[in-house]
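In the previous chapter we treated chains in isolation. Here, by contrast, the input contains two separate entities that must be folded as one system, with a combined length of 322 residues.
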Amino acid sequence: MVTGPGRNRRRLSGDDDAARGEQEAKVSRKDEDHPASGLQENAPGDVVVLSQGDRTLVILYGDVDVRVSEDLEYAGRFSIDAGRCTVMDVRQVTMMDSVGVSFVVRLAAGLRAAGTELLLQGPSRRVSELISLVGANELTRWLPEQTPAAAAVVERS
Amino acid sequence: MSAAVLTEGRPPSGFWAQRLDWEIDSFGSSVEARTQARDAVAAAGESVHPAHPSGHVFSAASERVELTMGELTVNGLRHGGPPVTASLSRGTQGWLLVVTDQAADRVPVPPGTDLTAVGGLGLRLVLSMAVEVGWCVEEDRKLVWALVADAPSPGLVHRLDQAVS
């Protein structure tokens, strides 16, 4: 399990990595940062990276924009270095600018160059439209839709 | 069905009523500007154009204005340096966004074809969101402007139709 140094870093529940196992990882949020409906309006987003078996899981939250560019750089470097199929969960993205789109595109291209691929877990109309607008549909593949992660439980894909 | 083209020239003439303006010195104030711009357009423009039948996120003028304002102001901070100013005006042709910075010698260039190159995607998105985009130099400051229409262009809707998810 790897997480970057974001300001609103979510904490992983459970006692340790072994307790979490490879079947699932639970992500909990700080209630004071993200009351009721989730993320505070205008708060910077977040990125969490998990190693899950033979895959890397990248979860994006909130406003994925220039304010989290360092976190995205870190996450991208880790994912490409891991060289495994990477699933990016974009269901909780509320806003994405070109920094976020560039992260998706460059990660997809990097993984492809490494002989693997980036799979996107939606739905996210916003993200899919942005990817389409920059002409990067061919670089990514979308997984079938899953039940929204209301309980913040990330199932192993 | 292509996007707008970056041109050198002043913003389109006509009647423009300035609604909001900002002085931007950080990414945080860029976020404030884009959010306030989105809210202003949602409150005003979309009372006339409530929702495009396509249902696409970026068929809404408020979403296009928000993204455009964010990209232009961040570009101003990154490539021009603070102080960056921004304004949002309303006219008969839609919404005019003007962002200025002090780097008059660093003019915007059209994005290349390599999607993985560092930089360029922001302007690419702006060219998708706006119907006209341009830049000029006035009084030693660079102005970058974008005209965002109330309704999405047929070209934009066509490209949004290609979205996969």
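Strands of chain B lie at 6-8, 16-24, 84-91, 94-101, 132-138, 141-148. The first strand of chain B starts at residue 6 and ends at 8. Compare these points with the single-chain example from earlier in the chapter.
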